[in-house]
Design a protein that fits this description.
The protein is built from 16 helices and 36 strands. It is of the alpha/beta class and about 675 residues long.
Length: about 675
């Protein structure tokens, strides 16, 4: 209690006592033995009222016991069903649910996982991908402040992501793996991985890297065959034995015609092989007849340049070349797009040649940009010259209509450095990103696009793009989202297609184990994004003629549909906007690939490595009863007594008000009973 409050309470007691004595001893004519009781009641009444006015607070402490948390994550991937372990997994889940000692000891949360971890709703065993490492990271975030042993009910087979046995080294809680599926090792040939570029060039040969593995105790020989349709394009023999369990086969295949070409790799099975599904693997390559060459012109050395080249060339259709302004002069006709990085007066000859050749450009400005020169040599923007800089962050404009930009978390990206000063737009442009300075959202553009009579330009008013690429990686653990963003900028700037009210974004082919995502954007006649449109797709399987119809769903600033439930094959499609007469057509291919069916048994080695790294254990289904008893009796997992302290103002204590009313009532009754008024 504060000293000020203590002094006020002492003063209140003195005042209440004085008033009680004044009324019943000083002011009264006759003093009887009852006066002291009247004085006590009046003192308590006045003091209680003064205490309520002072309203001191006190600390209320409550104690409670908190059970330790227990996370149970159940593998919901198709590999569990493929290993005939779905029933076993469901039975284990039921045992956990019905175990009274376990539920009494722990606060249990159930999850299912495939490519991501989600709260358990139902088990279908249909997830097309498995990422155990991602589940570990998610659980670490959920239980970072708790005592939470973790149980994985899984076959241990992971199809993508980081090696989970290494991710587990940073996991703070013991991990127990309840193994489902066959643990016996059979003789098995397998194509474990195929590495191939997405694109190849017509009349060239493209490399394919094939990883073939063998589990077994005999020396075996097989034949590896690569087919395009019914045509064999490569064949060779391979040998394996207990000492040589894997082989990397490098093949060069000819690209003879433009378009999506599908191939199938097959390893002939050995005698008594249990699983032949993993003996084959399908892949596809898009054969193209040209490559987009991009010139990056700069007289600076800056990390943005390397970042741009990495992002651009992540698409094999692009090639970026660094040129100084002096080197660029006379060479620009060899490039489909020119990126001008922080131009200065040294770029004069470059701008003259761009104007002569009518080239599309991307201009990136920053603190080193000579805006006096730039204001004189282009007619799209004009910048006030202050020779000062400031940091700005992006705000995405949902009405941007030039092309589809995926939201990559612009609000959380690091700031760019830009020149301070007022920016004027001299022509009609489309603003993709606005500037935010601290918490202040402005109307100043950060990224704009311009399309003037078929000549396109993009302006980015800030340097430090390498920070965006690094920040995107830290958020998504991949450069893919940011690189796709840059690729969309390049695709727009290098093209001369007319602006459209209905934009469609899709891949030329998809693998059957991945999502088949198509995106659409629809704009009204004023080119404002319309979130109320009814957009539908009609996809037709070329071979069977089967037609699939479905609506797009609104996702933030675009419409999206996942056609992952379609069977493999080639499809033509049309996308229409209801009542608007707008239609776009295209085609794509779904390459057959069931990665979850590539496994023959549970991966005991990696499960054991994961549990050893976290001081956990591998548990077989027949050991489940003993495991539950061990877990319940483990002294590491005991309820923790915690206290909760609340500061409560005395005016909230209703009994004190009731006490005042009782005192007043008793005093009034005694006075009336004794004939006093």
């Amino acid at each position: 209690m504060q000293s000020t409050t203590l002094f006020l309470l002492i003063g209140a007691a003195i005042l209440a006592l004085g008033m009680a004595l004044f009324q019943y001893y000083y002011k009264t004519r006759f003093i009887t033995s009852r006066n002291k009781w009247y004085a006590v009641l009046r003192f308590l009444t006045i003091f209680a009222l003064l205490v309520l006015l002072i309203n001191p607070s006190y600390t209320k402490v409550t104690y409670y016991s908190e059970k330790p948390s227990l996370a149970i994550a159940i593998d919901n991937s198709a590999s569990v069903a493929h290993l005939d372990a779905a029933g076993q997994s469901g039975s284990i889940y039921t045992r956990f649910r019905e175990s009274e000692p376990l539920n009494k000891t722990f606060d249990i949360s159930y999850f299912s996982f495939g490519s991501t971890l989600t709260p358990l709703d139902s088990l279908t065993y249909t997830a097309s991908q498995t990422d155990i490492s991602s589940s570990l990271r998610t659980l670490q975030d959920i239980y970072k402040d708790d005592t939470a042993p973790t149980i994985f009910v899984t076959d241990g087979n992971q199809t993508y992501g980081e090696a989970y046995q290494y991710t587990a080294r940073n996991y703070q809680h013991p991990v127990y793996a309840v193994v489902v599926g066959d643990t016996i090792v059979y003789d098995d040939l397998k194509i474990s991985q195929v590495n191939v570029n997405k694109y190849a060039y017509i009349n060239n040969k493209f490399p394919v890297e094939i990883f073939a593995t063998y589990n077994g105790r005999q020396s075996v020989s097989s034949r590896l065959i690569v087919k395009e349709g019914n045509t064999t394009v490569h064949s060779q023999s391979v040998q394996f034995d207990p000492e040589k369990r894997s082989e990397i086969i490098n093949v060069l295949l000819p690209a003879t015609s433009v378009g999506v070409r599908q191939y199938k790799i097959t390893l002939n099975p050995v005698t008594n092989e249990q699983n032949t599904t993993n003996n084959s693997r399908n892949f596809a390559v898009e054969v193209i007849d040209q490559k987009t060459n991009i010139a990056i012109v700069s007289d600076l050395v800056h990390p943005d340049l390397g970042s741009l080249k990495k992002s651009i060339e992540s698409n094999r259709l692009r090639k970026a070349t660094f040129l100084s302004p002096q080197q660029a002069f006379g060479q620009l006709n060899e490039y489909q797009l020119v990126i001008l990085y922080q131009p200065t007066a040294n770029f004069k000859s470059v701008y003259d040649e761009i104007e002569e050749l009518n080239k599309n450009t991307i201009t990136i400005s920053g603190p080193n940009t000579d805006w006096r020169f730039l204001n004189q040599n282009q007619s799209i923007v004009r910048k006030e010259i202050t020779r000062q800089s400031e940091e700005v962050q992006p705000i995405y404009n949902r009405n941007f209509s030039s092309f589809i930009i995926e939201e990559i978390g612009f609000d959380d990206l690091p700031p760019l450095e830009t020149s301070f000063g007022e920016l004027q737009l001299l022509e009609k442009v489309d603003i993709a990103l606005y500037q935010r300075i601290g918490q202040l959202e402005t109307e100043d553009p950060l990224l704009i696009t311009s399309d003037n009579n078929g000549r396109r330009a993009i302006y980015i008013f800030g340097s430090g793009l390498w920070r965006w690429r690094a920040g995107s990686y830290l958020e998504a653990r991949s450069f893919e989202k940011y690189d796709n963003f840059v690729d969309k900028l390049i695709q727009y700037a290098a093209s001369n297609k007319r602006k459209s009210r209905l934009n469609i974004d899709y891949e030329s082919f998809y693998y059957g184990n991945n999502q088949v995502l198509l995106y659409a954007q629809y704009f009204d006649k004023n080119y404002v994004f319309d979130p109320r449109a009814a957009i539908n797709i009609e996809a037709t399987h070329k071979e069977s003629g089967q037609v699939y119809q479905a609506p797009f769903l609104l996702q933030k600033t675009a419409y999206q549909i996942d056609l992952g439930n379609l069977s493999p094959g080639e499809y033509t499609f049309s996308v229409t906007v209801k009542d608007q007469g707008l239609t776009r057509t295209g085609q794509f291919t779904i390459v057959p690939f069931a990665v979850e069916k590539q496994f023959l048994n549970a991966d005991m080695d990696r499960l054991r490595a994961m549990t050893d790294a976290t001081d956990g254990a591998v548990v077989m289904p027949q050991q489940l009863s003993n495991f539950i008893d061990t877990l319940v009796n483990d002294k590491r997992y005991r309820p923790v007594q915690k206290q909760n302290k609340n500061t409560v103002p005395l005016i909230d204590w209703k009994w004190l008000l009731a006490f005042v009313i009782i005192l007043l009532s008793v005093e009034w009754f005694m006075r009336k009973y004794n004939g006093l008024t």
